[in-house]
Amino acid sequence: QVQLVESGGGLVQAGGSLRLSCAASGRIFSIDVMGWYRQAPGKQRELVATITSDGSTNYADSVKGRFTISRDNAKNTVYLQMNSLKPEDTAVYYCNVRRGVLEPRNYWGQGTQVTVSS
After folding, report:
1. Contacts of range 8-13, beta carbons closer than 8 Å, 24 or more positions apart
2. What is the SS3 assignment for 61?
3. Which among 11, 26, 61, 75 is placed 20 to 30 Å from 84, CA to CA?
4. Is residue 99 classed exposed, middle or buried when 0-12, 13-18 and 19+ CB atoms within 10 A define those classes?
């Protein structure tokens, strides 16, 4: 079992920065992909960024060049550095661990609110 605890959300003005952290308890395997998703009011949850244990990353087009995902395997922690924030980045951000490929199992954090004011 994996438990995820996010921190670092808050209120920021447009153009500002925030750094989200997600600490995982329980065993994290090298095959696990860690990532961030977000869900704005009235919208579906969407991918923000993912990272593998060897550092390969994937970003949504909407955040490329502004957000950076990183991972500390020794600490079982994943980070999301968010720069040049826009009001449309306002959402609840969820940490995710995806285990397996053919029948992946997903673990989710409780979410942290990010609000960007214009």
Report:
1. 8/112, 9/93, 9/112, 9/113, 9/114, 10/113, 10/114, 10/115, 11/115, 11/116, 11/117, 12/85, 12/114, 12/115, 12/116, 12/117, 13/116, 13/117
2. helix
3. 75
4. middle
DSSP for 28-40? --TT-EEEEEEE-
Q: How far apart are CA 6 and CA 91, in angstroms?
A: 14
On whether the CB atoms of residues 108 and 94 are closer than 8 A, the answer is: yes
More confident: 1 or 111: 111
Torsion sign across C-alpha atoms 8, 9, 13, 19: positive
